[in-house]
Write a structure and sequence with these properties.
Length: 187
């Protein structure tokens, strides 16, 4: 694959404290190691001096754990931006809508993106889809993403792992190439 030779930008999506309240999001979160893998990627990007973009969600819903008035809005400590690492604040599911993310990527001549964060079926999926449609070469890191159980239209509960795997399958080879973190790290 040789991803790192392409000067890829790492997009870290919604790595915020509010996700710790799993019941608020549907309960039963899958992939408890997602942040560990994402942090390994962040360390590698910093070591290689590759571009990093931190994206966080500022919910318009005052009851959301990701509303700016709540402690859950804060980024996880391990993912706080360092000097020169842009922080993009979004209010919808895509890192591209209502932000200058695309302009920043284009100004830096970035054509390849590696995406990690939360949640697989919402903001990660929407940002990945838009990135693919914009023509970026996108690599989505499956084990650096996670989600929660989802309630279906008829009240049935879809397990988080099923939701996660279905979201990844829908994105793979259409909007992105789905990879695991270790594939990039050992490259």
């Amino acid at each position: 694959m040789n991803i790192l030779s392409k000067n890829p930008a790492l997009l870290l999506i919604d790595l915020q404290k509010g996700w710790a309240k799993t019941e608020h999001w549907g309960g039963n979160r899958n992939n408890p190691d997602a942040e560990i893998v994402a942090e390994s990627l962040l360390e590698l990007w910093r070591e290689k001096n590759l571009p990093i973009f931190h994206i966080i969600h500022s919910s318009k819903d005052p009851n959301s754990e990701l509303h700016a008035s709540k402690s859950g809005y804060e980024m996880l400590d391990a993912f706080r931006p360092q000097e020169g690492e842009p922080l993009i604040i979004k209010q919808v599911n895509s890192g591209f809508i209502g932000t200058d993310l695309k302009e920043q990527l284009d100004q830096a001549n970035i054509e390849t993106l590696v995406i990690a964060g939360l949640t697989t079926n919402h903001c990660v999926s929407t940002t990945t889809r838009m990135a693919g449609n914009f023509g970026y070469e996108v690599f989505l890191v499956a084990d650096a993403t996670a989600t929660f159980d989802r309630k279906g239209l008829n009240g049935e509960v879809f397990p988080a792992e099923l939701v996660h795997q279905t979201a990844l399958a829908s994105l793979n080879e259409e909007f992105a190439t789905v990879v695991n973190g270790q594939e990039i790290i050992t490259e």
